[in-house]
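Worked Example 4.2. Consider the chain below.
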Amino acid sequence: MKKISTGQDNTLENWIRLSEMAFGKTSGATKFLTDLAEKSENGIKEEVIADERQLLMVLSKLHSGNA
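Applying the procedure from the previous section yields the following structure tokens:
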């Protein structure tokens, strides 16, 4: 499994945790990731295949309301 720049596994669980710290538990970015986990076959343990930089940009836009 690939790692993100923090050294953690590139899973929805870790992205949700990072999103909660950066944007808040009720942010659009965190909701987006949580919704993905709920729909995923592996839940929060699902590996994220998106490029880290691109995902950060999408989450930032979701948080700011520009997506």
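Residues 12-64 form one domain. Helices lie at 12-23, 28-39, 52-64. Compare this with Example 4.1 before moving on.
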